[in-house]
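Lecture notes, part 5. Sequence design as translation. It can be helpful to think of inverse folding as translation between two languages: the language of shapes and the language of residues. The source text, in structure tokens, appears below.
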């Protein structure tokens, strides 16, 4: 679903995306072009070599050229004209002109055996090999491969926070959430907010109280992820988008020149500016370029796109590879999404344990969505050795400000209390969950079934976040 405005005060604007890019650029990465270049300039050739190699193996042309140069000079690795030729050839095939010159310089000095070794390396990392292993197969002008996208029916208009209005504070929030089969939002995840914490609550309120036409597969409603930008401005005028086309073209020029942050920004412009009239499949190639350059948030976007078949054909294997790269770089949203992907395979007895590892890492970074999912598992997982209701309640205590009006938090509290044998508290918290869910017009069947169990002094075990 394209990011869309709900009213002029909260319209998507270019500044929100620019602010978002500043946040993304500060995220840690295992390897990216900038940190590799910095390490090289400092003379830390071992670190630079490892980072360039990781990115070169993802098909990043500049990294392939840099890796070829380091092999040729013996920087950070024993010199090898054979490996230098292989990587220079790959970079040349990907459009790096300097790589062509290096390849042509090296080739006359290689034996037939060396040339065969070079060809073998090139085959392993050729465009065809990478297409099969990592690259998305794009759709043509469609949002999803196999589902009708979510549509907004009755957006709920959030109010401008009084304190922010009095102080003249403006800001932007980017949120992802799940629209369940009943057409109501679940699990809003604030991916960035500038300034932090000021507009989060009204955005959650807007998301949770809006009504949607759910996504559908073969005509049947299914839970579908959605993302949206909100821009909070004291005043709004037609001049907000003056010069937009010029800015877009400037960003595109920088992206074409290889600027990784511009590639990420241009992808977000396509995905988030309805004025451009472009579909998500046109954003993915720019996310791919930034992902190949080591940008964790781009890897997260690419991974989720592949997992969902959003803008490309669905390929869970490729999606998990990209999500894991971002997760290893400690991108918390990728860690949460990777945990969610692992949990879909409940037949694997180790699935929950593996998911908990990623959720714990994200929770240590302060991710509220990670803590919520972690608490849900610890409160009510079907495996008794996994459950830890006391810790689940402790996690909930730290989430009350953020999720106090979300029925899910109260459901987790209730399930944890019941798992501890405190059915009085379980019934009280479940009643609060039902009251909040009624306010939001959720389908109450699952909630009332759990309340019936608690009324009979029975604990409920299962997936609290299955919508």
């Amino acid at each position: 679903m394209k990011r869309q405005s709900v009213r002029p005060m909260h319209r998507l604007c270019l500044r929100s995306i620019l602010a978002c890019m500043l946040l993304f650029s500060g995220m840690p990465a295992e390897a990216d072009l900038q940190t590799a270049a910095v390490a090289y300039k400092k003379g830390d050739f071992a670190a630079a070599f490892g980072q360039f190699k990781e990115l070169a193996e993802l098909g990043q042309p500049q990294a392939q050229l840099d890796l070829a140069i380091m092999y040729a000079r013996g920087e950070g690795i024993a010199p090898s004209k054979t490996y230098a030729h292989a990587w220079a050839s790959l970079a040349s095939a990907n459009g790096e002109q300097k790589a062509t010159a290096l390849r042509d310089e090296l080739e006359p000095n290689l034996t037939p055996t060396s040339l065969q070794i070079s060809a073998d390396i090139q085959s392993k990392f050729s465009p065809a090999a990478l297409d099969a292993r990592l690259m998305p197969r794009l759709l043509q002008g469609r949002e999803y491969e196999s589902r009708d996208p979510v549509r907004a029916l009755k957006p709920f208009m959030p109010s401008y926070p009084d304190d922010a209005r009095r102080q003249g504070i403006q800001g932007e929030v980017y949120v992802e959430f799940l629209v369940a089969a009943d057409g109501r939002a679940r699990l809003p995840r604030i991916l960035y907010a500038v300034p932090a914490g000021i507009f989060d609550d009204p955005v959650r309120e807007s998301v949770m109280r809006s009504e949607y036409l759910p996504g559908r597969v073969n005509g049947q409603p299914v839970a579908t992820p959605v993302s949206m930008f909100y821009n909070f401005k004291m005043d709004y005028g037609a001049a907000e988008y003056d010069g937009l086309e010029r800015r877009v073209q400037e960003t595109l020029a920088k992206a074409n020149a290889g600027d990784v942050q511009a590639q990420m920004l241009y992808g977000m412009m396509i995905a988030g500016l309805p004025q451009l009239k472009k579909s998500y499949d046109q954003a993915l190639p720019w996310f791919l370029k930034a992902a190949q350059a080591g940008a964790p948030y781009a890897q997260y976007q690419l991974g989720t796109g592949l997992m969902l078949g959003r803008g490309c054909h669905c390929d869970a294997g490729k999606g998990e590879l990209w999500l894991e790269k971002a997760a290893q770089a400690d991108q918390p949203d990728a860690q949460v999404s990777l945990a969610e992907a692992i949990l879909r395979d409940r037949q694997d007895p180790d699935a929950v344990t593996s998911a908990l590892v990623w959720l714990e890492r994200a929770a240590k970074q302060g991710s509220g969505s990670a803590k919520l999912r972690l608490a849900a598992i610890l409160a009510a997982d079907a495996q008794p050795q996994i459950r830890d209701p006391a810790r689940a309640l402790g996690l909930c205590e730290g989430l009350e400000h953020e999720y106090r009006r979300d029925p899910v938090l109260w459901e987790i509290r209730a399930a944890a209390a019941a798992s501890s044998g405190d059915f009085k508290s379980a019934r009280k918290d479940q009643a609060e969950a039902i009251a909040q869910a009624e306010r939001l017009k959720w389908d109450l069947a699952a909630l009332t079934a759990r309340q019936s169990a608690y009324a009979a002094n029975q604990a409920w075990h299962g997936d609290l976040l299955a919508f």
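The translated text above is only one of many valid answers, since several sequences can fold into similar shapes. Residues 423-440 form the longest helix (18 residues).
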